[in-house]
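Subject: design request, 71 residues
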């Protein structure tokens, strides 16, 4: 049996990372198909990220270190 995953259909980056991590952890072989990002998509990602920062939706490196100590 062959498992083929179209990562382009998974829009949430955290879900992509979780899926990859889980498959690797379970030692499940898979083949990924993913198209290269276009310049327009890249620029949109940058604009989205800038908007998140402007809304204050970020964490500083120092705050991340403090949170990581609690894990």
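Subject: RE: design request

Done. Sequence follows.
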């Amino acid at each position: 049996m062959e498992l083929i995953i179209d990562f382009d259909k998974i829009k949430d980056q955290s879900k992509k990372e979780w899926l990859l991590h889980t498959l690797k952890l379970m030692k499940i072989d898979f083949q990924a198909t993913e198209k290269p990002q276009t310049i327009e998509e890249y620029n949109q990602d940058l604009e989205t990220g800038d908007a998140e920062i402007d809304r204050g939706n970020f964490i500083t490196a120092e705050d991340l270190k403090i949170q990581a100590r609690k894990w």
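The CA atoms of residues 59 and 65 lie 10 Å apart.
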